[in-house]
Amino acid sequence: MKLLSFVILFSMSVFFSCANDNAIVWNIDNLEKIGGHDITVLGDPQVIETPAGLAVEFDGEDDAIILDMNPLAGFSKFTVEIIFRPDSGGNKEQRFFHIGEVNDDRVLIETRLTEDNKWFFDTFIKSGESERTLYAQDFLHPLNEWYHAALVYDGQNMRHFVNGLKELEGTIENTPMKGGQTSLGVRLNRIYWFKGAIRKARITPHVLSPEDFMSF
User: Fold this and answer.
1) Which of 35, 128, 145, 200 could form an SS bridge with 83, CB 3.0 to 4.6 Å?
2) Mean pLDDT, residues 168-187
3) pTM of the model
4) 156/173 Cα distance (integer angstroms)
5) How many CB atoms lie within 10 A of CB 148?
6) Which phi-psi region, left, alpha or beta, contains residue 128 (left: φ > 0; alpha: ψ -120 to 50)?
7) Is 144 within 8 Å of 85 (Cβ atoms)?
8) How far apart are CA 97 and CA 207, in angstroms?
């Protein structure tokens, strides 16, 4: 019995290790390359020091980073994570992590700011004729603090989390994307600019549970 338990635990350990080995990890800590990829810098974002390492700060007006690649290409299931700090004084709607095409198939990670200096999470997937928005207006968070956010898609359901706590979920048919780009700090068509900082992102071609999310 002990041997069987050991084999099961070892197998689970190997599985999650392989899952994490396949992850795409981006440290957003410079303005030259992200994850080994060349970037296009818009405006004048700043590299800043934080208690957990370097990050890039965006002014909410014209700062952004564009990568000419789609880290979700070919993924039928995925987990998108990001560590970020939404700041006060930004636009009411901010689409700060955009993967895919400008108006066609895409994944969007967004914030909405309220008049009482809080924010809530808004995520969106569009695939062909299918699309789904998770608009978490009943889950408010203070601005000017660091957060971990995640969007998980299991092949049928999408759900999103803030600091490991699930807020909303919904169903959508999603076909793996083939091409596109990625933007940090703004939507790919240069609207809905983000005011705040981004420190790290991770894209995994598997469904992760909160206990497997990256720490922040």
Assistant:
1) 200
2) 96
3) 0.89
4) 6
5) 19
6) left
7) yes
8) 19
